[in-house]
Amino acid sequence: MRRLEEALIRTCAEFGLVTTRVEGRSGVWVLGDPVEQRAALGGLSLDFDPRLTDDEFDPRLNGPEYAPSNAGQRREDRKIAAIGIRVAKGVTMHGFALNVNPDNTWFDKIVPCGIRDAGVTSIANELGRDITIADVLPVVEKHLTDILENADLKPRVIEQQPAEVAGPAASGPAPAAAGPAAGRVPETALS
């Protein structure tokens, strides 16, 4: 997933658009502008954000819309590319959507990616000019090829604890593992 993000970040950079990752969220983002430091009116702050002042606030209970990296630090971040991963029967599938020049008004009718405190944008919207998929496609292909061709793919070994057997049949000692690889499962990963 991080490699796909990197290819899309490089693609946007080639068009003069600065993008990045956001902690705790997948995809590629245009960061919001910093929040101005406003003087409080009569000692009253109009920038109430319970995440900044409530000692009892637990972001883990607030759902995926909580952005730990943007807790009142800047205006709304805007997602420019989404990445999806699926694992089924031991097979992984990856995909991405890079917003080039869509009609973003459709995103007003939904909560994109289930994230309430961020927006959606496109390359054309951020650059303020028309740009087509035909313009962007060869650049994406170039960066995907570069990143994936040079990826160092090594099998990763995950240690697993032997499962304990419960019930009356489990009264005897557990059988010994056979061989040095017992309890180890190879997994190929792109991380």
Task: Give the biggest beta sheet.
Answer: 5 strands, mixed
Q: Termini separation (Å)?
A: 7 Å
The geometry reads as globular
Class of secondary structure makeup: alpha+beta
- Into which percent range does the helicity of residues fall? 10-25%
Number of strands: 7
**Which spans have pLDDT < 50 for at least 5 consecutive residues?**
60-69, 177-191
- Write down the overall mean pLDDT: 74
What is the C-alpha radius of gyration, as a whole number of Å?
A: 23 Å
Strand content is 15-25%
Q: Helical stretch count?
A: 4
Along the chain, the helix and strand elements come as HEEHEEEHHEE
Structure description:
This protein has 191 residues and is of the alpha+beta class. It is 20% helix and 21% strand. Strands 1, 2, 3, 4 and 5 form a five-stranded mixed β-sheet that branches. Strands 6-7 form a two-stranded antiparallel ribbon. It is globular. The relative contact order is 0.17.
Q: Which key features would you list for this structure?
A:
alpha+beta; five-stranded mixed sheet; disordered C terminus; 191 residues
